[in-house]
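Entry for the shared binder. Reason: the reviewer on the internal report wants the predicted structure included alongside the sequence.
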Amino acid sequence: MVSPLMAFYSPDPAMAQILGQLVAQLEQDGRPGLGEQLSVTWLRYGASLIGAADAMGHETFWGQPVTGANWSGERPRYPASVVKLVYLVAAETWLQRQLIDDCPELRRALADMVRDSGNDATSLVLDLLTGTTSGPSLPPERYQAWCRQRQLVNGWLASLGWSETRAENACQKTWAEGPYGRERDFYGPGLENRNRLSTDFTARLLHAVVAGGIVSPPACRRMMDLLQRSLDPGERAADPENQVDGFLGAGLPQGSRLWSKAGWMSQARHDAAYLEVEGRMPMLLVVFSEGRVRAADATLLPQIASALLAA
């Protein structure tokens, strides 16, 4: 079995060369400075990843070789709404351990958090995971206790024993306008306690979910149901926040199958996706791009997906 402290994929020199050439070409085509603003983790599989851990057993699955490449894949960046994937897996973990109760309202919140990327739904989910609530600033003693509770998801990430979790931070809610009160206090004076994830970590987490290799196979199937995206043009047009247009899914041909969680705000455009395309190797791709210019670039992520799919 692969040690949990080892990288979960084997770097492929040919894939790394393709990825490096693609970044250079994208820079030359009118995106100066892109290499510094971009993180990518790209994995390819010889067969479908869906349910692989359930079929072969977790120990065998985690010992299977995976080929991949990255561009600044270990660099932590602000993940925007991609952090909701972490909270989804954490919620299923808490449910399995009977730390929270399963109920229709939780399931509604999880669906809205992932399918529609709802911030209000995310607020409820993180409240349930950590036993904390938003509100006015707190006196020092109560605030310190609140902060300890709010780190419960990070504690769970550390318990996974993955090398990719050492610099990750998933303890903040997502906002439309920004945090206030105790939430703003918790960000720190210079926002130093913002959420941060790397594309390598995000890829490993999504890899585990797709394969049924974390929490339990039934939990992973529930999560996959929430992550599945439609590439039908009519359905996408009816949903202006479909998490396909402007993201990796927009670079795929019709008939492709896609499971993803995107993140988009004024300073970031990200996506984490597993995809299957007829006649191509199944692929898992996580792309984080930072900066106001990158956030407004609705063609970057589709171009990356299309180019790597054709490679």
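Summary line for the report: The two ends are 30 Å apart (CA to CA).
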